[in-house]
Each structure stands twice: as structure tokens, then as C-alpha cells.
Amino acid sequence: MKASWDIFCTVVDNYGDIGVTWRLARQLVAEHGLAVRLWVDDLNAFVPLCPAADANAEQQWHEGVDVRHWPAAWSATSPAEVVIGAFACQLPPAYIEAMSAQATPPLWLNLEYLSAEDWVEGCHGLPSPQPNGLRKVFFFPGFTARTGGLLREASVLASRDSLQSAPKQRAEFLAGLGVQVAPGSRLLSLFAYENRQLGSWLQALAAGTQATHLLVPQGRILADLAAWLEVATLAPGALHQRGALTVQVVPFVSQGDYDKLLWACDFNAVRGEDSFVRAQWAAVPMLWHIYVQDENAHWEKLEAFLALYRQGLSDPASVALTALWRAWNIDGDMGQAWQALQPHWDELQTHAREWAVAQAAQPDLATALVHFCRNSL
């Protein structure tokens, strides 16, 4: 029989939590032959990532994953052999009671948020005994060999290379989204939270000498974009020209198509955790809009990643990249930071690919989880 896993996801940040757990569940089924139930408390956030899904179904199957609605009134359910609470979500009390009643209690993992902070290595894999006798283990994704790695399907890098090395394939994919890029234009994508610095960046793009085509998937940044364009609303298909800048709104797409969108672009601005990791596999320059946390704890996470990511860059390129990321996240002058980045574009392109190669040399998160669980069980 297949080993059984339960993954619990509480939707907090629109698509970040469900984005990570949906990718993980699919990979555990497809590449490791496991029986996976994905419990989601808000299926409305799941449907945009999996268009075939039904937001009202209590149970449904997609790509081999048993997707369940996580109801407020929990009913009796037999626990799986491995139980994952994603991002410190609280499991149903009745489910925890059922876990403790098992002759052989399940392996209970708390899948933590991604961080490059130094303390993560020391906490990865640490047990946390519970008052009821169960043991919960902290499992940290990360960027070093002493963490759990990053989500990376076995085929993702080859698929990326196939699209990036075939201009016709790239153009056909973009055409499917209604996108036609003028020869010589640089293609950018923008997926971000609300940001007061958007206007200064867009103005720099519009006033620049480099023709730029900016693709903006549906999301929270659209209100700021509409304000800068001085239009009431923006919907998929909207196309606006301002100087050297063409802005186009594209539909929210499935995870597979979003990966392709990132691969097709020359630069990607992303947010949160899921799109942040996928932008790294795209192996092109990127900009991360980190999720804001209480007491500005996110700044430490931002700086910790930058300290890792900029290793190997020349000092001028490192300074320019750091200034851009800080401007985007801490209300700096994005226009000035963007202009200062341009002389280092070729170096940043090379560096992005080298970073992806280095990260791909480590075990991926799903494989690391499976090996950890097999050794523990």
C-alpha cells in the first residue's frame, strides 16, 4: 500500500500557502508514489491555481491528490502516517486526539516558512514534544545543505531550458495569453502586493531608452497600477502605452503556466514565497516583494536572503541589486535604483543562472521530506 500523508493548509495570504502545499502534494504523488490528502480551509483560493477544481466540493481528485475541504465542524477522520501542518497552522483538535490514539502515532511535521536566516539551520529537524505525548518536528525549507531545500519538480529545469532556448515556443506560449512582444523589447513580469514605489519604477521604465513590455497578472498590485495609468479599472487584456513602456494585464493562470510566464520573461518581480522560489528557477534577474510581518521581522529575512544571493557578484552589481530590493520593500526611490541597476544587467543575468544551478545541486524539498520521514518511521 502507498504510504499515506495528510497536508493541512490554512489560507492566509491569498495564494502563497495554498500555492506551496498544492505544488508539494502533487510532487509527492507524481514522483514519490504517495497517497496524499490536501486539506484546505478556503477552496476559493485553490481554484485559480487549479482551474479544474470545484470551490464547493467536499472532496475532489486532481493530479492524483485527494483534495478535501477543511470544515469548521471537523468530523472523525483516520490520521495518515505522516501529517504536515503547513506554516504553523493549527490542526483540528479532534484530529490531534485521533493521532494520539493510534498504536503507532503518525510522524507530525510543521513545515515552516522559507527563510535564509542563520538560525534556521539550527532549528531544522528539531523535535517539539507535545503535552499529549505526540512529537512534532520542525522542518525548514532553505537554501543551504543543512535545511530542507526548495520545491523543485524533477522536470522543471529541463522544461525551462526547452522554452528559453526556443523562440518560437516562447512566442506561441505568450500568444496564448494574448501577448505579442515587439522585437528588441525587454519583457518583465510584475506580481506584487500593494506598493507605493510602483509609480517611480513605472516612470523610469516609461522614460528609459530601453523598450519594455510589462506583464501584470491579476492581483493586488492592479489598483496601484490603475492609479498610475489614471484609469478606473484594469482587466485581463488591458493594454496601455506610456513612452518606452507597454503595460499589459494578463489573466491569473495555473501554476504550470505561471512557471512558463516567468521563464519567458527577462526580469521577474515576484512576491511572497511560492512565486519567489519559482522566479529563482527561472534563472533570470528578479525582484522580491517580501510579505510584511509584525515588528518589521520581514526586513531581517530580506537581508538574510540578499546576503546569500549576492555572493559572487561584483561589488558594484551587489550594491545596485541590494539598493533595488531595499527600495521596493522599504519605500525607497525605485526609479533611481532601477536606473543604477542597468549597467549590471548582463552580470545579473549570468548570476541568476549560476544561482539556480547551485540551488539545483541540493536535494529538493519534497525529496528531503520523504527521506526524512522514511528514516524517522
Chain-wise SSE layout:
Elements: E1 4-9, H1 16-32, E2 35-40, E3 59-62, E4 65-69, E5 82-86, H2 93-100, E6 107-111, H3 119-123, E7 127-129, E8 135-139, H4 156-164, H5 167-176, E9 186-190, H6 198-207, E10 212-217, H7 222-229, E11 239-242, E12 245-250, H8 255-264, E13 267-271, H9 274-282, E14 286-289, H10 297-309, H11 315-329, H12 334-341, H13 345-360, H14 365-376
Parallel strand pairs: 1-2, 1-5, 2-4, 5-6, 6-8, 9-10, 9-13, 10-12, 13-14
Antiparallel strand pairs: 3-4, 7-8, 11-12
| Estimated structural class | alpha/beta
- Strand numbers in spatial order across the main sheet: 3-4-2-1-5-6-8-7
Instruction: Give the helices and strands as they follow along the chain.
Output: EHEEEEHEHEEHHEHEHEEHEHEHHHHH
Major sheet summary line:
8 strands, mixed
The count of domains is: 2
Helical region count?
Answer: 14
Radius of gyration: 21 Å
Strand content: 15-25%
CATH superfamily of the largest domain: Glycogen Phosphorylase B
Mean pLDDT rating: 95
Number of strands: 14
Poorly predicted tracts of residues: none
Overall 3D geometry?
globular
The rounded distance between the terminal residues' Cα atoms is 15 Å
CATH C-level category of the largest domain: Alpha Beta
CATH architecture of the largest domain: 3-Layer(aba) Sandwich
- As for the CATH topology of the largest domain, it is Rossmann fold
Query: What percent of the residues sit in helical stretches (DSSP H or I)?
Result: 25-40%
Pfam families: EarP
Family: Belongs to the glycosyltransferase 104 family.
GO molecular function: translation elongation factor activity
Protein name: Protein-arginine rhamnosyltransferase
